[in-house]
Amino acid sequence: MPEVEDAGTDRDMTAFYQPELARVIDKSRLTDRMVLLRLQLHSGEFMEHQPGQFLQISLPGYGEAPISLCSSPTREQTFELCVQAVGNLSAAMHDLRPGNFVGVRGPYGHGFPIDEMAGRDILIVGGGIGLAPLRSLIDYIRDRRGDFARVVLVYGAQTPGRLLFRDEIELWEQERDIDTYITVDEPDEGWEGLTGVVTVPLAGVDVDPERTTAAVVGPPVMYRYVAAELFAKGMRQDDVLFSLERRFKCGMGKCGHCQLNDLYVCQDGPVFRYSQLVGRSEAIEVWAPEDQRD
Ligand SMILES: Cc1cc2nc3c(=O)[nH]c(=O)nc-3n(C[C@H](O)[C@H](O)[C@H](O)COP(=O)(O)OP(=O)(O)OC[C@H]3O[C@@H](n4cnc5c(N)ncnc54)[C@H](O)[C@@H]3O)c2cc1C
């Protein structure tokens, strides 16, 4: 895929909107609302990416939307997407079958700064479908486990049925390479795990603020409370990474729909350091406890 900066004229720009084809290899259901698609580029090339980056996925007649890569770049042959049916395109993606094709642009955006995270304690905090992009990071860390110090996952969903990747979470727990705290807001009869929002187990996790980087992805409401908990533990704004979700069309800083002052979520993010966000948008500033605002 050519670099966007190379685009000279409007005519040249069409090349950047040209999707390439990817074939569906496998589809499985994760929850009542989510499917997991495994795909392969038709060109046979690998999907090189950073955990946290996204693709623009299209289907003729249905549209195009950003979807995060949820597989690790260390698993090279195929790539995976976790899709929630909420509208035109995503519902049509639930009907895809092995052998079908989708259009793919990307990968785009800044993902997690994995090189800088090496050697540090990693605290991963996920809410709901936020585990999808985090699973890319988790599998990356598992494949390079020796490069990271202590790894903790705190993940919550509304109900046990809404937890993503339950089989894999069990494996992560069994391997004991990652300390996992899994919680649900509304337990059902069979649930024997933790109950409450993610900040409940997060409050009990010991963190060495000098050594820890936190990676946080979840619904907007979660960020304010998670930020408050992390800052109460003494974490620095530079070490708190948030992935933001905003509506946009192009994925490469052209349409302006995702603009936060001088930042584009699609291009400068979706993964941001907390320090990049404070002061840039009132909507985001309120996440910071008063004594943490610049
Ligand atoms: C960086 C990034 C990564 C993402 N990763 C994933 C992922 O991994 N998996 C996933 O399932 N989703 C992901 N999303 C969200 C996904 O892109 C959206 O849900 C997308 O809108 C789905 O497209 P659609 O055509 O199916 O739905 P749409 O037709 O776009 O509708 C989706 C919902 O948004 C509402 N809506 C439509 N237009 C507007 C508007 N202008 N303003 C406000 N609301 C509107 C609709 O009523 C509907 O409820 C990601 C988004 C971003 C920005």
Summarize the structure.
The protein is an alpha/beta fold and 294 residues long.
List low-pLDDT spans. Answer: none
Q: According to CATH, what is the topology of the largest domain?
A: Rossmann fold
Widest sheet: strand ordering: 10-9-8-7-11-12-15
Report the CATH C-level class of the largest domain.
Alpha Beta
What compounds sit in this structure?
A: flavin-adenine dinucleotide
Number of strands: 15
Instruction: Provide the number of structural domains.
Output: 2
Query: What does the largest sheet look like?
Result: 7 strands, mixed
Instruction: Sketch the topology as an H/E string, one letter per element.
Output: HEEEEEHEHEHEHEEHEHEEEHEHH
CATH 2nd-level architecture of the largest domain? 3-Layer(aba) Sandwich
Helical fraction equals: 10-25%
What does this structure look like?
With 294 residues, this protein is of the alpha/beta class. It folds into two domains: 4-108, Translation factors (Elongation Factor Tu (Ef-tu), domain 3, Beta Barrel); 114-292, Nucleotide-binding domain of ferredoxin-NADP reductase (FNR) module (Rossmann fold, 3-Layer(aba) Sandwich). The chain has ten helices and 15 strands. The protein has helices at 10-16, 88-94, 114-117, 131-143, 166-175, 199-203, 220-232, 265-268, 274-277, 282-285, and strands spanning 20-29, 34-41, 54-59, 63-68, 79-84, 101-108, 121-127, 151-157, 179-184, 194-195, 212-217, 240-243, 259-260, 263-264, 271-273. The strands form three sheets. The protein has a seven-stranded mixed sheet, with helices on both faces. The chain has a six-stranded antiparallel sheet with strand order 4-3-6-1-2-5, with helices on one face. A two-stranded antiparallel sheet has the order 13-14. The chain is globular and about 50 Å long. The N and C termini lie far apart (39 Å). The model has no long low-confidence stretch (mean pLDDT 89).
